[in-house]
Design goal:
Layout: H1 6-10, H2 27-33, H3 37-68
Length: 75
């Protein structure tokens, strides 16, 4: 395996004991490791778009709460 050590080869192996937020659980990374570059890039873009939508929604909700006086603006 390209002269990698055993540790390096096994570093990103799937492991059920890791946190749900661990990068080893990212579906785009899994696809990339399997050599499916196009699918990995598509999945990564989908994930990033979803994150942007969620962030925008939370920002809009915070803005509404600020306008309604139910949220104190950070200093």
């Amino acid at each position: 395996m390209y002269y990698f050590t055993k540790l390096a080869v096994e570093l990103n192996e799937e492991d059920e004991s890791v946190a749900p937020t661990d990068s080893r659980r990212r579906p785009d990374q899994r696809l990339m490791e399997q050599g499916e570059w196009d699918a990995a890039n598509k999945r990564k873009n989908e994930l990033e778009d979803k994150q942007r939508r969620v962030r925008k929604q939370k920002e809009q909700e915070a803005e509404k709460a600020l306008e309604a006086g139910t949220l104190i603006a950070p200093h």
